[in-house]
Amino acid sequence: MASQEDIFKKLIAHSKEYGFVFPSSEIYDGLSAVYDYGQNGVELKNNIKKYWWDSMVLLNENVVGLDAAIFMHPTTWKASGHVDAFNDPLIDNKDSKKRYRADVLIEDLLAKYDDKINKEVEKAAKRFGESFDETVFRSTNERVLENQTKRNEIHGRFVKALNDSDLVELKAIIEDYEVVCPVSGTRNWTEVRQFNLMFSTDMGSTADGAMKIYLRPETAQGIFVNFLNVQKTGRMKIPFGICQIGKAFRNEIVARQFIFRMREFEQMEMQFFVRPGEEMKWFEHWKEFRLKWHKALGLGDQKYRFHDHDKLAHYANAATDIEFEMPFGFKEVEGIHSRTDFDLSSHEKFSGKNIKYFDPELNESYVPYVIETSIGVDRTFLSIMAASYNEELLENGETRVVLNIPAVLAPIKAAILPLVKKDGLPEKAREIMNDLKFDFKCGYDEKDSIGKRYRRQDAIGTPFCITVDHDTLLDNCVTIRYRDTMLQERVAIADLQQIIGDLVNMKNLFKKIVG
Ligand code: ATP
């Protein structure tokens, strides 16, 4: 069986070969951790964004949108805390010259202990069969207890070090538990240093006295500084949310996992403004809503889990991640944060403007509390590609590479394929396509054998192939082939609209969220 690492490599190669993701400026050998989306990638990405956007603004009448500029007044980032605190602790291995995030090295170490424990439990479960009592086993087995004690010890030190921003202690943990560099295999580490992740640039010509500005590291601040604009002009009443999709930039220390960690990426964020004291209720509400959004895609419920943060960001009083099982383990795809009134209060202080909301029901003014949901478009894209990529062994011994992308999100919904390039079949195929193209992104392909064409469509995740043959000219019927089952069926051209429409309608997913 192929290892997860092999599968990940294949996925990266497949993404490039079929026009989903290219390395940026590839003719110049690429730019580290920056990627471009190709002709199929951009369709999938746009569909993901539409699914998110509509789920926010259609399903929630108290959520509206915004599109703020990437450039913002530099004081924004002072007020938000990013200038002083948007840091990651970095450490270098002197032998391999590779750079790591010290916190990630320790998280990986913790994951190793978890793995060891889980393996013991799995082994025992197999051995004891039905009589197995996991709770008893976990609390009595010597090896499990030993590993659990060590894990708790590391975890305790780690959380304290993060909360105290104690870089010396982070290094001490790495040394005490003999963490080695995965490349050189040595423990020859530098000290741990803080590194600010924001990119900066200059605005205006130097003669005028250029101003140093930042490329936004999150889209959230564009929402905060517009809070009153939207509230007043939209006559919004608390609780309400503002959502936004846009690019964000982070000078990530380690960027080695394809589009999982990029230096330029895209976020879909919502800030939901609530009465102080009601934030935990809404935190739970949005956790549930967002998990349903993910699960509605049908990639497998077991692939998702919540992971509560060990260290809360400077602005948060509760935070959890929705993690997805990537080929390289469970990883964060979305963060849900209770940001208190930190951002709005801070902008009030730094700008000197009143950013309070007058609550007509309570007859008082206050700075609202905020629940944020923040999801990466690119990580969602990766999770969908990873869960959809399948190599199937067929009965005839051949292997079929297929992307079982949720039909709603597929880049191309239907491929129209004339069986041969003559006898009026291409004309008939075009006629069908001209009818369907108003509703669905369609593809047309007349080159190579029909079998090869089916494979090409499987590889980009097209849910329907529609084959036009000689009988079509007589009976106005076509063969429709379903990607996932490869089943073929004869249907009337007049019914295509409905057959395709039923399966690719986003309403199907929305109903799973709020149905
Ligand atoms: P990580 O711990 O993986 O660095 P984070 O906790 O800093 O992520 P947030 O600040 O919560 O991430 O950002 C919200 C979302 O934005 C993340 O859940 C992720 O989907 C996305 N995101 C953050 N950084 C990147 C990146 N460098 N590349 C791609 N997506 C990212």
Fold topology:
Elements: H1 4-17, E1 21-23, E2 35-37, H2 39-57, E3 63-65, H3 75-79, H4 82-85, E4 87-92, E5 99-101, H5 102-128, H6 134-140, H7 142-163, H8 167-176, E6 193-196, E7 200-203, E8 211-214, H9 220-225, H10 227-233, E9 240-249, E10 264-274, H11 279-295, E11 304-308, E12 318-326, E13 329-340, H12 342-351, E14 357-359, E15 364-366, E16 369-376, H13 377-388, E17 389-393, E18 399-403, E19 414-418, H14 425-436, E20 442-444, H15 450-460, E21 464-468, H16 470-475, E22 477-482, E23 488-492, H17 493-504, H18 507-514
Parallel strand pairs: 3-9, 19-20, 19-21
Antiparallel strand pairs: 1-2, 4-5, 4-6, 7-8, 9-10, 10-16, 11-12, 12-13, 13-16, 14-15, 17-18, 21-22, 22-23
Helix pairs in contact: 2-13, 5-7, 5-8, 7-8
Bound molecules: adenosine-5'-triphosphate.
Roughly how much helix do the residues carry, as a percent range? 40-55%
* Percentage of residues in DSSP E strands: 15-25%
Between the first and last Cα atoms, what is the distance in angstroms?
40 Å
Ligand set: adenosine-5'-triphosphate
Q: In angstroms, what is the radius of gyration? A: 26 Å
Strands ordered across the widest β-sheet: 3-9-10-16-13-12-11
**Which class do the helix and strand fractions yield?**
alpha+beta
Named CATH topology of the largest domain: BirA Bifunctional Protein, domain 2
The CATH architecture classification of the largest domain is 2-Layer Sandwich
Question: Roughly what is the average pLDDT, rounded to an integer?
Answer: 95
Largest sheet: 7 strands, mixed
How many helical stretches?
Answer: 18
